[in-house]
Design a protein that fits this description.
It is a single chain. By secondary structure, the protein is mainly alpha-helical. It has four helices and no strands. The radius of gyration is 39 Å and the shape is rod-shaped.
Length: 120
């Protein structure tokens, strides 16, 4: 009888050890899977962020190119307009430039910084 009791105790101890080992490795497997998913999510987020940055830069370049094209087109229309070769009174020219230089879009241009227009 004592022999069977020892066998039963050893079998129970072995079962407990086996159960503890299974639970331990199962928990580690979950942690590793979660870490792998987190790494994958981070990589996907970084890739999306890089894509957004590229699109943002491309959009800015397109807007700048469109703005430059509009400036060239406006300049051509002004130079080709009837009377473009007639001298403009300096007071009229200065008033026009002062008006432009009060606008935020022109305020920091080199030509406007040199003029220091009347702030009105």
């Amino acid at each position: 009888m004592a022999r069977n009791a020892w066998r039963l105790i050893l079998a129970a101890a072995a079962g407990i050890i086996l159960l503890a080992a299974v639970l331990h490795y199962r928990g580690r497997a979950r942690e590793e899977a979660a870490a792998a998913k987190l790494g994958s999510d981070r990589a996907a987020a970084a890739q999306a962020s890089a894509g957004d940055a590229v699109n943002s830069v491309a959009g800015a370049a397109q807007r700048e190119a469109a703005s430059d094209a509009l400036t060239r087109s406006n300049e051509k229309e002004i130079r080709d307009a009837k009377g473009a070769d007639v001298a403009v009174d300096p007071a009229v020219r200065d008033a026009g430039l002062d008006g432009l230089c009060r606008r935020a879009a022109y305020r920091d241009s080199e030509r406007c910084r040199m003029r220091e227009p009347d702030p009105r």
